[in-house]
Amino acid sequence: MESPVCTSLSTLSEMSLQSLGIGVAGKGQAMLKSETEIDAHDWQLLLHSIQSHIRKKSDLLIAVTHFLITKEYRLRCAINYSASDGRQLAGGCGTVCEQLPDHWNRDADRYTLNYTDGLAGQYILMAKLSRRDLVISLQNSTSKRMAIVCLQPEHLVNSTCKSSMDKCIPRLDKFIKRLRAELVDPAVRGTKRLAEIGPAFNRKIWKRELPVRNSGTSRVAFNIVESTHSLES
Questions:
Q1: DSSP 46-95
Q2: 71, exposed or middle or buried, with CB in 10 Å at 0-12, 13-18, 19+?
Q3: What percent of the chain clears pLDDT 90, i.e. is strictly above it?
Q4: Crossing angle of helices 57-71/172-179, nearest 10°?
C-alpha cells in the first residue's frame, strides 16, 4: 500500500492559482526576472558584439533599444515581417532571433527593425536621424498601438569607442528608464505615460527629468509618421 503524499497548503494554493492561469509571486517570478533583467555583464557582451559595426552615435542608441526590446520584453527580430497589406518586409536574422540583422545600420539616417512576440504579434521599429535628433517609433501592428521618443545622440552618447557601455552612455540607467516609459511600455504593454495618468507631483518630476520637446522636434516626429506610410506604399 502506497503512503500518501503530503502536500502543503501553500503548494496546493499555488497549484490552484496556476491552474487558473494566475501567476504566483515568488520563485517563478524571481526566475523570470533574473532571466530578463539586464546587468552590466549583458551590456558588456552587447558592446563587444556590435562595437566594430558602430559608425555613429545613433547606431549605439538603436542597438541599446533593440537589446532592451529583445532581452527584457522578449520580442524577437523577424526576417519576414508581414505588412498590413500582406507584403513581406525584410529586416531580420534567420526566422526569429535576438541578434541585430545584417546591414541594420546601412542607411545613413534611417533604421527599420521588425519583431514578433510569443503570440505572433508583430511590431515595427522605425527611426529617423535629423541634424540633432533621433526620432524612434515603435508600432504594434496587431493592436495598432504606437509610441514615439525623441533623443539627442550628441547629448546621450559620450563616445562609441569606450571599453564599457556606461562609459559610452554615462546616464545609461536613466536612458533605459526613459525608453521603457516613453517607447516600449506604451507600444508593447499598452501602458500610459506617467505624465498622462499620474498625480500633479508625478507630472512635475516627469517634466523635470524628461523636458517637453520644442516645436522643431514635433515636426521631426510628424515627419517620421509620414515616412512610415511612404515606406509601406
A1: HHHHHGGG--SHHHHHHHHHHHHHHHTS--EEESSEEPTTS-EE---SSS
A2: middle
A3: 50
A4: 60
Beta strands across the sheet bearing 134-140: 96-97, 76-78, 110-116, 122-129, 134-140, 146-151
Query: How many domains does the chain contain in total?
Result: 1
Cα torsion angle, 17, 18, 21, 22, sign: positive
Is residue 7 a part of any domain in this protein? no
**Taking a C-beta distance cutoff of 8 angstroms, is the pair 160, 168 a contact?**
yes
pLDDT of residue 134: 98
Q: What is the CATH number for 199?
A: 3.40.1000.30
Q: Could you tell me the pLDDT band of residue 36, with boundaries at 50, 70 and 90? A: low
Residue 210 banded pLDDT, cuts 50, 70, 90? very low
**124-130 average pLDDT score:** 97
Q: Which residues span the domain enclosing 96?
A: 37-232
CB 182 within 8 A of CB 146: no
Mean pLDDT of all residues in 48-76:
96
Per-residue pLDDT, 98:
75
Separation of alpha carbons 78 and 99, rounded Å:
10
